[in-house]
Amino acid sequence: xxxxxxxxxxxxxxxxxxxxxxxxxxxxxxxxxxxxxxxxxxxxxxxxxxxxxxxxxxxxxxxxxxxxxxxxxxxxxxxxxxxxxxxxxxxxxxxxxxxxxxxxxxxxxxxxxxxxxxxxxxxxxxxxxxxxxxxxxxxxxxxxxxxxxxxxxxxxxxxxxxxxxxxxxxxxxxxxxxxxxxxxxxxxxxxxxxxxxxxxxxxxxxxxxxxxxxxxxxxxxxxxxxxxxxxxxxxxxxxxxxxxxxxxx
Amino acid sequence: xxxxxxxxxxxxxxxxxxxxxxxxxxxxxxxxxxxxxxxxxxxxxxxxxxxxxxxxxxxxxxxxxxxxxxxxxxxxxxxxxxxxxxxxxxxx
Lengths: 249, 92
Prior knowledge:
The complex is a heterodimer of chains A (249) and B (92).
Chain A: H1 16-27, H2 31-40, H3 42-50, H4 59-76, H5 85-104, H6 112-132, H7 138-145, H8 149-157, H9 187-205, H10 209-219, H11 235-248
Helix pairs in contact in A: 1-2, 3-4, 3-5, 4-5
Chain B: H1 8-11, H2 23-32, H3 39-61, H4 67-72, H5 74-90
């Protein structure tokens, strides 16, 4: 007998007595009993894997991993302890799926202990939010876990998922790279400014000497830098205006 | 009589804060240097000079904003002041 993975919902659930009976047969090396146990619990594996769908991982891979977890659980199940198989298998399946996610979630390889810590941080954050309706600070989380806050912050920040700059944003056609602002002034802005300055300079050159003198006095601009009597602008004021002009440039 | 509502630059004198001379001081200095004028004339000359600068800018950018409003706008005056400082330093 081979396990049919095609439709997990088509298999009937086992009673506790049936589980014990199959487990006893598996212990004796009955391959068909093992297949039956796996097949009858595919629904459980599917339901656990389903929780991780739509999180950026291939659903077929998740199902595959959950099935691997289920097989491990079948091979290790001890019927003498009296638990239902699903209670035992749940943790194996979950661990298998989570391990797959952790392994493939980042382009940067993060050590297993750090990944495990990130899971715990997320778990604490979730519980804290449910209880207090607010996000805990990293200090609080570090206190709960009994670890150094700085180290925890570094570990937690390393878990950020890198995104390709060439990746499209929600299929809009724009990439993430296109949304990053350019720190340097845009060429068209520079050209606009140059163009305007040219016009202003040309307009200033058409002013009469009387108008020019009045304009200079009004703005505190001297033709002669030592002429503080007619243009009483202080050096401090001049520097401030120069600074503002450079900021706008 | 109460002050009119809105920005003072829209209803009163055009002004740049912090630097330069007042219209009365400018009129005094111009009179001393041989060009007799009062504070109102100093203001009119200033506004006339500003108009001469604003008109070609308006034409080039295709703005239909009122010239009198632009020349009284403190932010425009500050921008022009900065450009004139640069202009002065480059001695163009």
